[in-house]
Sequence to fold (54 residues):
Amino acid sequence: MVIYPVPAAVTQAKVQLVIDETAKAPPHQINADVQSVIDAQTHAERDALLDRKA
Fold:
């Protein structure tokens, strides 16, 4: 298991998701926010693994 500090992009994506959920945004916006969180986490994990190999 790789443990790394949470990048700002992941935190920002999660905050935006909570903001839109609280504001009762349309489902397509919530889905886009969830996808943004997943993309940010995936990118951060990939970067962490590449840094570990180097």
User: Anything to note?
Assistant: The mean pLDDT is 90. DSSP finds two helices and no strands in the chain. The longest helix spans residues 27-53. The CA atoms of residues 4 and 48 lie 7 Å apart.
